Amino acid sequence: MSDRLDDVAVFFDGDRLTLARQLAGLRKNALAGLIGKTPTAVAAYESGLKKPAPATIAALSLALEVEPAFFTARPRTMVVATTPHFRSLRSTSQISRDQAAAYGRLAVDISTVIERHVEFPVRDLPSCPVPVDAVGRLPEEAAALVRRRWDLPKGPVGHLVRLVENRGCLVVFSPMGNATVDAYSFDTPQRPVMLLNPMKDDYYRQRFDVAHELGHLVMHVDAEPGGRTVEDHANRFAAEFLMPTEDIVDQLPNRADWRRLGELKQHWNVSLQALLYRARTLRVMSDATYRNAMTTVTSRGWRRREPGPRPLLEQPSLLPKAVELLTDQADVDERALAAECQAPLGLFRTVVSRLPEVTALRQPAGSPVMSLLRSSD
Fold first, then answer.
1. Rounded to whole angstroms, what are the CA distances from 286 to 104, 156, 255, 277, 291?
2. Is the model more confident about 5 or about 175?
3. Residues of the signal sequence (predicted)?
4. What is the pLDDT of residues 143-179, one digit of tens each?
5. Per-residue pLDDT at 44 exceeds 60
6. How high is the pLDDT of residue 97?
7. What is the DSSP letter of 190?
8. Residues ≥6 apart with Cβ < 8 Å to 327
9. Which residues contact 374 (CB under 8 A, 6 or more apart)?
10. Element containing residue 223 per DSSP (H, E)
11. Which residues pair with 372 in a beta bridge?
12. Which pLDDT tens digit goes with each residue over 313-356?
């Protein structure tokens, strides 16, 4: 064990310590207290100004519940990412955002390693930057561009998670313990990443979340996240992507016709609230009528749970299916795969899993196309 710790000390990477600390949801002073060091010492380890001794690495490993090898360096191309787009910076603490971002980075690490063995869909994400001060219909035009680029037919979009995965996007659920953070996204040199909230048990709202995050990835790679205008752009993108103007404008009612709205909800696979938002923004419904309708939504408790059928959430299949291919067909040991990813086994299983209540369900047709990469030997 001492020889192993000596080796880790030689290849110790402070960035990996930062990642482990953020995954644990700890501040520097909290970690310092756990290992009997000062916050200044922890900061020095993370910045690379000072290398921890083997005994300190052992203490860090125990405190952060990772193997010592977790702290060894990885290629920098595997960790570079844009700033994650969180919905509301005010309602989410910095430590929660750091923890969520660290989990996203770990998901990228795992995906990159698994791609050594399994061929993933090629990245195909159009770029259509929309400045924060943009006027006009640029977000809607960006959504229309993506639909054309992906050759989507007129009308409702099908399985949305499967669609973005087939275009090279990595979609994973956040850990249950980090469910206070809403859906968020960021881009990497390898592939764009979306993380969904596992506690948002609503098929229709989840689909709008995915379209919203797709809008950020297409329009806002360089934009400061969390601003009201940026979020409005993403909402407008999602509305146009899921409910194209020319396809839906003549179907929307100009009053709160709940029967008609219920029919449209199931046809377009969007929420009542999204339909009301769309009717107002397309000037089919007046502002006063919209406000009155939303008052009804609130008073009846529909903001949290709308009436009608509740389809199962769409499930990611890119990573889960890849791991199934490796463990079932290529006889790869799950623990060995997690170790290759330098990921704690528990977090590895969370990243590559579907939601627990639906893991036994068969994947729908059209799951992301992938194959085992064959050795040339």
1. 41, 25, 8, 11, 9
2. 5
3. none
4. 999 999 999 999 999 999 999 999 999 999 988 766 5
5. yes
6. 84
7. S
8. 333, 334, 337
9. none
10. none
11. 118
12. 999 999 999 999 999 887 889 999 999 999 999 999 999 988 64
Question: Angle at CA 314, nearest 5°, toward 313 and 315?
Answer: 110
Spatial contact of 348 and 341, defined as CB atoms under 8 Å apart: yes
The domain made up of 1-73 has a fold known as 434 Repressor (Amino-terminal Domain) (1.10.260)
What is the number of alpha carbons within 13 Å of residue 301 lying toward its C-beta? 2
Q: Which of 59, 76, 77 is nearest to 20 (CA)?
A: 59
pTM over 0.70: yes
**Tokens matching residue 260:** 């008609």
Structure tokens at 288: 């006063």
Are 248 and 277 in contact, with CB atoms under 8 Å apart? no
User: Is residue 87 within 8 Å of residue 182, measured between CB atoms?
Assistant: yes
Per domain, the residue ranges of the chain are: 1-73, 126-299
Q: Where are the alpha helices (DSSP H) in the chain?
A: 2-10, 14-23, 28-35, 39-47, 54-64, 94-114, 138-149, 160-166, 203-219, 228-242, 245-248, 258-268, 272-281, 287-299, 318-324, 334-340, 345-351
